[in-house]
Amino acid sequence: VTSNRLQKIMQSNHIPISLLPNNSTMRKVTLSNNVSLYTSPYHSNENNKSLSLVLETDNKICILPGDMRYQNINQILQQTNINNKDIILIVPHHGGDAGDIRTIRNYKFSQAAISVGPFQTHHHPNPRVINALQNCVQNIQTTFNTSTDITITL
Fold first, then answer.
1. How far is the CA of 108 from the CAs of 12, 25, 55, 136, in angstroms?
2. Which of 36, 100, 119, 149 is the most exposed place for a label (fewest CB within 10 A)?
3. What is the β-pairing status of strands 137-142 and 60-64?
4. In degrees to the nearest 10, what's the CA dihedral of 75, 78, 84, 87?
C-alpha cells in the first residue's frame, strides 16, 4: 500500500493521522519503549518511500521494513541497541530489489522472513537476494511455493 493510498483509507475510516513531512534524512518516531517507526528519506520513486516498524524485546529485535531500502535498514541497525540480541528481518520488497544488500552483510540475523504472494509476476524472491542473505542469516523462511504463514516469536 502506498502512503497516499493508506492516507485515503485512514481518512475515509475517520482514523486520525499525523503526517511527517518529506525529509532528506531518516526520522525515528518512538511509539513506546518497545516500538519505533522510522521514515525513509524522501525518494522520487513511490516504491522506495516506506515506514519501518521496529519491535524490541529484552533479547530480540524485529525489523518490518516494508519496501525500505537495505541502506536505510543499515541506518536503523546503527541507531538501535543490538548488543546480544537476535535480529529478525522481514525482507523488504518481497525479496526483490531493495538497493544494495551488501550494506547489511556485517550483521548476523537469526531469522529472515520473505513474504511472497501466489502470483509471481515479478519473480520474487530474487535468487541474488537469497544468496546474499545466506551469508548473514541463520534461518531464511519464505512463503514461496508454500501455503503456510511464517510465525515470528518475539
1. 42, 25, 17, 5
2. 119
3. unpaired
4. 0
Residue 128, all three cell numbers: 541474488
Evaluate if residue 51 carries a pLDDT over 90. Answer: no
Q: Is residue 137 within 8 Å of residue 107, measured between CB atoms?
A: no
Are 126 and 97 a contacting pair, CB within 8 Å?
yes
Q: How far apart are alpha carbons 5 and 72 in whole angstroms?
A: 23
Cα–Cα distances (Å) from 64 to 13, 89, 94, 115, 120, in that order, read 24, 7, 12, 11, 22
Predicted TM-score (pTM) of the model is 0.80
Strand partners, 141: 113
Q: What is the dihedral of CA 72, 94, 104, 23, to 10 degrees?
A: 0
Residues 6+ apart with CB under 8 A from 2: 46, 49
End-to-end CA distance of the chain: 25
Closest CA to 140 of 102, 42, 127: 127
Q: Tens digit of pLDDT for each residue in 86-143?
A: 999 999 987 888 889 999 999 999 999 998 866 666 666 888 889 999 999 999 988 8
